[in-house]
Amino acid sequence: MRAVSLVTALTLLAPAAASANARRFSYSHESAVLPKGTRELEFWTTNRIGRDTHYSRFDNRLEVEYGLTDQLMAAWYVNTRAVSAEDPTSGAVAKSFSFEGVSAELKYKLADPMADAVGLALYGEVTYGPGEVALESKLILDKRVGQVIFAGNLVAEAEFGGIGTKVEKVYEGKLTGGAAYFVTDRLAIGAELELEAEVEEGEFEGAGLFGGPQVSWSGDALWLVLSVLPQIGHFGGDHDGFKRDLVGSESVHARLLVGSDF
Amino acid sequence: MRAASAISLIVAGALSVACAPALPVAGALDAARAATTVEQLNTGRAIYVAKCTGCHSAHPPSNFAATEWPAHVADMRMDAKLTPEDESAITRYLVTFARR
Questions:
Q1: Where are the beta strands (DSSP E) in chain A?
Q2: What are all long-range contacts of A227-234, with beta carbons under 8 Å and residues at least 24 apart?
Q3: What are the φ and ψ backbone dihedral angles of A26, each rounded to 5 degrees?
Q4: Tens digit of each residue's pLDDT (9 = 90 or more) over A230-251
Q5: B20 falls in which pLDDT band (50, 70, 90)?
Q6: How far apart are CA A193 and CA A208, in angstroms?
Q7: Are A112 and B53 an interchain contact pair (Cβ–Cβ within 8 Å)?
Q8: Which member of B45, B51, B75 has the closest CB to residue A35?
Q9: What residues of chain B lie within 8 A of the CB of A218, using their CB?
Q10: pLDDT given for residue A11 in this prediction
């Protein structure tokens, strides 16, 4: 009852547009970029939880975005990680917190989902962390049809670890997508999918499919989006066929984003 | 074969409707009705897309009446960093295609 009252109150707070670059999906980017000269602060946390033994990992990112032009946006991140995991042999739970490096991003918008046939943007990100360099590129598509918004991303990522010794290469391909219905201008609910495949040292390690609900809300000074994606199945790696894998992957991926202009 | 062709046609039709731009592009008749030029209206459309869609999906002009749009645009002047010329061009475009 309280939850219903809170959602009702949030949706009635104000009638029209919200500020900041409000996102409607947490695993898929939309083509929108910040207008020239505007800034935004975002906090990300991604929780990967539930293996066959106790496992919980939080990947946190603090991001500052800035509109360089009306089509080009830059962003900078500080990344940290907190892990709580059980040692399968001893049963002891180890907890750790680590600094995972800094990232820089450029995003260029080529077409708008309302003004053009389809929204389109290109995204590039480089991460420099302790003992690792990662490059990530994204092709971003989105479209608004009436009260429904669709988004899809094709993601390619390359990680180079063991800097200074033997360089290990890991390649990841991801396909993410989502659809959300605008209940009001401020509140949207929908679903997201994430398919991630990994190739390590030239060997296919497997691919996991995650999917589940998401909800987003945007106010005058703040927006947030939450997605909870249970693992649907996994193929490749150490097992045959398509089934849930809780050895190399997690039961649930969940992500919360909170953003505000400043 | 006929069924496949029919399905293809339906899918193509649905896609063309779904992918149609939701923001109207001004023509000569619109410009005459608004006592302005096609270029001015479409400049307003371009500025509307550039300045407003970074923070939220563009509202179709028909979402509000012509009397309502000037106040909505004025409310966003600071957030979107609109110059007086931007504000005027956006308002002119939105009012022209407002709900009637």
A1: 39-49, 55-67, 72-86, 93-111, 119-129, 132-145, 148-161, 168-182, 187-200, 203-218, 223-235, 242-243, 252-261
A2: A227/A25, A227/A26, A227/A27, A227/A178, A227/A192, A227/A254, A227/A255, A228/A252, A228/A254, A229/A27, A229/A192, A229/A193, A229/A194, A229/A253, A229/A254, A233/A208, A233/A209, A234/A206, A234/A207, A234/A208, A234/A209
A3: -100, -25
A4: 999 998 877 788 888 888 889 9
A5: low
A6: 11
A7: yes
A8: B51
A9: 56
A10: 41
Determine the pLDDT at residue A163. 58
- Domain extent, residue A114, equals 2-261
Q: Which of A19, A71, A114 sits opposite B57 (nearest CB)?
A: A114
Whether B54 and A32 lie within 8 Å, measured CB to CB: yes
Whether residues B20 and A117 touch (CB distance < 8 A) is answered with yes
Number of CB atoms found within 10 A of residue A110's CB = 13
Q: Does A148 touch chain B (CB under 8 A)?
A: no
Q: What CATH number is given to the structural domain containing A252?
A: 2.40.160.40
Q: CB B55 to CB A145 under 8 A?
A: no
Query: In this predicted structure, what is the pLDDT of residue A199?
Result: 87
CA distance B49 to B56: 10
Cα separation, B96 vs B89, whole angstroms = 11
Mutate to test the interface with A, among B52, B57, B62, B83 (most CBs of A within 10 A): B57
How many inter-chain contacts (A to B, CB under 8 Å) are there?
A: 80
pLDDT, position A76:
98
Number of domains forming the structure of chain A? 1
What pLDDT score was predicted for residue A110? Answer: 96
A144 touches chain B (CB under 8 A): yes
pTM: 0.84
